[in-house]
């Protein structure tokens, strides 16, 4: 497999992460991680696939999420890789009868391993660069 093919596979992996999270497809999400993977960010750290899936269930407080994957720069060396991926994550929720939208500007610092011919996330660190929380115009009409 060429370096370009590996990089495309890694990009698809991070897009599949966004899709699995937004669909609340925890089975699909679990398949993206190595068994002993770590997912961490401000105020949380989940060690192992079961803990990652359990922790991501916390997204249930939002009626909808959309993770928009942007810049993705990966470095591949043999069967390991690292990347930084930009993402805007939209979270829709209700508070005091008002529909609100919480937006996060995220940078993920990722590490990957190719296991049995498939790339898996071994460590994903969420870095929150900015956030904004405001009423969602037109949502309560």
UniProtKB/TrEMBL annotation:
<feature type="domain" description="SnoaL-like">
    <location>
        <begin position="4"/>
        <end position="124"/>
    </location>
</feature>
<dbReference type="Pfam" id="PF13577">
    <property type="entry name" value="SnoaL_4"/>
</dbReference>
<dbReference type="InterPro" id="IPR037401">
    <property type="entry name" value="SnoaL-like"/>
</dbReference>
<dbReference type="InterPro" id="IPR032710">
    <property type="entry name" value="NTF2-like_dom_sf"/>
</dbReference>
<protein>
    <submittedName>
        <fullName>Nuclear transport factor 2 family protein</fullName>
    </submittedName>
</protein>
